[in-house]
# Entry
Amino acid sequence: MIYHLSLQTAAFIAGLILCLFTAGGFTLHGKAQQSAAGFPRSRLAGIVLLAIDLVWSFWLVSTMEMGEFSTFRRPFLIALPIGFLLTIRFVDEFLAVRALGILLLLAAEPLLDAAFFRYEMSRLVLTVLAYILIVLGLIYVTMPYQLRDQITWLSKTAARWRGINALGFVYGLALIALALFAY
# Structure
């Protein structure tokens, strides 16, 4: 275990983040749609998200048990900032989406770690969210234009936009309820 989060804490944090993002998208739907439409090409958002990815990855590599690969720790710690700078310099297309994909992949691991070896069936609510994050993260890193297309499709009508945000909010509330009453 790397993160040492309980299932209750992981579900509560994930539910709270999900509720905050979707509540903002639901209540400020016009402004949120404009922000979401501009996100894939935002260089500033890409640099900020990539910096968060760098710090998180650097912390992981420096603290995790690597077993027989521990001799590679120092080269990884050197390669991470170099990769960060090279990515900022040479990856102009959809940098924010790729950085978001990396962040989603990093965020899925603590959720799966918290649900590991838990026997409650309700843990699957958190596990499903983690696997959704993994699939989306892989798609956004390898095919970043997909997020742009998804945002365009979701923004086509107000009903779609509000529906997806309402669904995310209800899922977040379910995670918070499970954290408070079941875990």
The mean pLDDT is 91.
